[in-house]
Write a structure and sequence with these properties.
This protein is an alpha+beta fold. It is built from 7 helices and 5 strands. It has a single domain, classed as Multidrug-efflux Transporter Regulator, Chain: A, Domain 2 (Orthogonal Bundle).
Length: 161
């Protein structure tokens, strides 16, 4: 059994879901059969990405300021600010409390990881709506659990057929 967990994004239809490593092709085929229009899959191995990110930036205890997150993503600080405003990433260590010195945002390792994944997907052609779906998946929450359960159901149905 493959231990990978795949993040699957349909950049043409603004959809994102997760699939078990050994059920990736079945999940993609099942999804494609339900959409009935062209799809543009972008697929990423999440455990591999996490390890690669850890190798590049250091341990998960590290924190980041906005300039450091921008450098990791390969963009500039205004883009990171806009992503925070749009709710794509969250400065979970220290949210912005207003303008001026001393109110700088501080991001956790996970926040920076989410930003790096979103940056990669944006360069691959994913739109903001798709990035929002990926952000929800990576940050967790009730919608994520429902989507993960749905992806598991989709993969299971595809395997049964």
């Amino acid at each position: 059994m493959n231990e990978s967990v795949w993040l699957v994004c349909d950049r043409l239809n603004s959809v994102a879901f997760v699939a078990d490593g050994d059920k990736l092709q079945e999940a993609q085929a099942f999804y494609q059969s339900r959409v009935h229009r062209p799809v543009g899959f972008v697929v990423a191995d999440l455990p591999f990405l996490r390890q690669r990110f850890r190798d590049l930036v250091g341990p998960e205890t590290r924190t980041f300021n906005r300039a450091e997150v921008a450098a990791v993503v390969g963009t500039n600080k205004p883009v990171i600010f806009n992503w925070v405003q749009d709710g794509l990433i969250r400065p979970s260590i220290r949210p912005r409390r207003g303008p001026g010195r001393g109110n700088a945002m501080e991001f956790s390792w996970h926040d920076a990881f989410v930003a790096a994944v979103l940056g990669t997907l944006a360069r691959a052609g994913c739109n903001v709506k798709t990035l929002g779906e990926v952000s929800k998946l990576l940050y967790g929450g009730s919608k994520t659990k429902r989507k993960q359960a749905e992806a598991e159901r989709v993969a299971t149905e595809a395997t049964i057929r």
